[in-house]
Design a protein that fits this description.
The chain has twelve helices and no strands. By secondary structure, it is mostly helical.
Length: 296
């Protein structure tokens, strides 16, 4: 029981930090763009870990046989998520709007759990499967607002589903890396350093480089919130990586996906949103899913 509760508890703590970061993103978007904010956020996460590196980098006894596959796995994880998954999420938001894209992106735990069963041979018990479905349904209920008719092409569903696939696949990759060497801090450091390099190069290739004086002004206008987002995401991801070093993907991935519940709780606390039947049903489903998974 304790063996299952520790990774589940760490995953929920990570979800809490992700929930906080969602509000920092909301504040940051008032004075900056999502594309530039994502670079600052990922860069802040990488900087956060490099500052801690002298203290935590020697968490494992490395050898050439373990270091090379470990670096390769987490370099790929960094390219996939938040690299590709972030790009697809933004495109889905642009084409479909935040409600539908966010709802479909909530299927990430299904891809993570399915990959863990197929690739790692993890056992998906009926209780964990039921809890995962309840969490996914609850997050969808929290995201869906049912406004208007569809104004986007059917192929666009591939964008949020692709983002969910990459996020779920990243959970699988982290677990595989932890099986090589249980070094969660080093894994996050590699992944986000590679991700920051990739998104920065992509931004420079597709946009006019931002002058330094404009960047300083943008930091005052909103990017400072994205820097805070990066630190919060850093804490969340460390919890997630440690959880995946201790527990199975089929347990950790659904727990991480509960972060909209914490986002909602903070919104209700500060009056950003109001309680409704849809929200009540979503919260109930998520809580039931968490309880079922934690006790199985």
């Amino acid at each position: 029981m304790t063996e299952s509760l520790l990774p589940a508890g760490l995953a929920l703590l990570g979800a809490f930090f992700f929930g906080l970061s969602s509000h920092a993103v909301r504040l940051g978007l008032r004075g900056s763009t999502a594309r530039l904010g994502s670079i600052v956020s990922i860069g802040a996460t990488a900087a956060f870990y490099w500052l801690l590196a002298p203290l935590l980098l020697w968490e494992a006894a490395w050898s050439l046989e373990t270091l090379l596959p470990f670096v390769a796995i987490f370099a790929l994880v960094g390219l996939v998520s938040p690299g590709l998954s972030l790009f697809l999420s933004y495109e889905a938001n642009r084409v479909m709007g935040p409600t539908v894209s966010g709802t479909l992106a909530a299927t990430a735990p299904l891809f993570g759990a399915g990959g863990a069963v197929l690739v790692l041979g993890e056992r998906l018990t009926p209780g964990v499967a039921l809890g995962t479905v309840a969490i996914v349904a609850g997050v969808m209920a929290l995201s869906w607002q049912g406004r208007g008719r569809r104004r986007w092409p059917l192929w666009a569903v591939l964008l949020p589903l692709g983002a969910a696939l990459f996020r779920g696949g990243a959970h699988l990759g982290v677990r595989m890396g932890m099986l090589v060497t249980p070094a969660p801090f080093t894994g996050v450091l590699i992944a986000f350093s590679i991700s920051f390099l990739a998104v920065t190069l992509a931004y420079q290739a597709g946009s006019t480089p931002l002058p330094l004086r404009r960047l300083r002004a943008a930091l005052g206008g909103g990017l400072g919130w994205f820097a805070l987002t990066g630190v919060l995401n850093g804490l969340a991801l460390l919890c997630q990586y440690v959880a995946l070093s201790l527990g199975r993907v089929v347990v950790v991935s659904p727990m991480i996906s509960t972060f909209p519940l914490f986002t909602l709780g903070i919104s209700l606390l500060f009056g950003v949103e109001r309680l409704s039947l849809r929200i009540g049903v979503g919260v109930l489903l998520v809580v039931l899913g968490v309880v079922v998974i934690s006790t199985r």
